[in-house]
Amino acid sequence: MKRGNWRARGRDRRWRRHRSGWQRDISENTTQDHGDDRRAATPSLTTPGCSSAPDPGSSSSRTSAPAPELPGFYFDPEKNRYFRLLPGHNNCNPLTKEMLQAKEQERKRSALLAEDEGPKKKAPRSGLNSTLLLHKRHLGLLPLSSYCRLIHEVKVSGMRRHKLEVQSSDSSSPNTDNFRLIVADSACERVFTVNDVSHGGCKYGIMNFRGGRKGALSVEMCDNLYFTNRKVNSICWASVTHSDSHVLLCLVGISQTPGCVSLLPASLFSNSNPDQPGMLCSFKISTAWSCAWCLNPQADKTFSTGLSRHVIVTDAVTGRRQTYGIGSDVLAQQFALRAPVLFNGCRSGEIFSIDLRQRGRRDHSWKACRFHQDSAVTSVRILQDENYLLAADMLGKIKLWDIRVTRPVRQYEGHHNEYAYLPLHVSEPEGLLLAVGQDCYTRMWSLGDGHLLRTIPSPHPAGKDSIPNVVFSSQLGGQRGLPGLLMAVRHDLYYYPYNSNYQDGPVVKTYD
């Protein structure tokens, strides 16, 4: 009898110690959260699925079990409390769903940024490294094309961020204008830049890139910048007299000033301006969403503009126009190279082509092929094998279409977009596809099999005005250039080189 009482007393003592420790923890949490209790809309809630009392048999189950979701409430695991969520911002209770999502996104970005800057990079594929690839190549187990593609994947996974210090001739007025667009020419020797001006409008110019002997990238900004009080909606390089001799800009109209498409000689933006820069012309047009230049000899010096419910094809020399009526806004365009065929992506999700050799037809029989994506198409890119076309939409879907059968043959997962106009960047010699998402992450896929190779976080917190613009090339700066990724975020420039030992800080020289 005494022995049984002794066992019962032992169980009671253990239970009292466990209970006192739990009460002490609760009292400490209550003391820490005393300042938050005044702002909290409701006290801590207790539900059948989340009991406040611990299990005497297992103290770890209380901390590991997730709290149940309650409609209209948010559970803070650090404070062990529920807080009421209100639609929109409120001074009395600033806790909103949007704020919580932004906080969680920023936490993930900071964690990924710290991981991305670490000394060790995660290989894009398991067991993939340059030593193993070289060994297989020497044994004849790997074709040359596959070896080059996989080497690029290894190099991409090891790229590290280096900031380009922007130096200005006027040190009292540093560059604070955010980059809006950057577009490289076909040789990646020059990059046309468009910056938002703080007092409204845009300024634009050209940056020239050169690869140094020591492996450093030098960048020089032209001293002849142009300013406009209108918004630049779309730009592309144009080959009028020679390759990439001009730049085509779509300017949005304001007030009583109509929109226009300007064809500017690239020599206007050189530091040694010639007396006769070349053909300079402007075509009045309503607001254009997109533009494209045709390189096929059958439609020489021809460009297109995508408008609301119309596509206009213009001869830059004679000014002759051909208008095609469309049932939706044309947000993306690109010409094929082998034939004078224009591919268009619409807000309705439709993708169709126009054969310029069939100018006389008034009905929609000039549409050579038609297929659809599920949302507004923001970018179309034709591959070197012109039977395939890449398209991205506002649902974040990136698909590779076989034009012959009008069916998607591959999809690239991970891209994020809801409503922004975001382009695709294709580097076929390296077998890479790049896209910047609305979440401000730059993602790189293998063009061949759709494998996600790298996710690069933005150096700045995510926001509508801080979506990066990128240029990628294995010869950034021309034939003697350096491989890597150029990223423009807000008013900063960053360079991600292939060379992991890259140390010399490249300099951007600007002139006001």
Automatic annotation (TrEMBL):
Signal peptide per UniProt: none
InterPro entries xref list: CUL4-DDB1_E3_ligase_receptor (IPR052254), WD40/YVTN_repeat-like_dom_sf (IPR015943), WD40_repeat_dom_sf (IPR036322), WD40_rpt (IPR001680)
Annotated Basic residues bias: 1-21
Chain segments carrying region Disordered: 1-71
Keywords: Repeat, WD repeat
GO CC list: Cul4-RING E3 ubiquitin ligase complex
Gene3D superfamilies: YVTN repeat-like/Quinoprotein amine dehydrogenase (2.130.10.10)
Gene: wdr21
Biased composition (Basic and acidic residues): 25-40
Residue ranges, compositional bias (Low complexity): 51-67
Source organism: Chanos chanos (Milkfish)
Name of this chain's protein: WD repeat domain 21 isoform X1
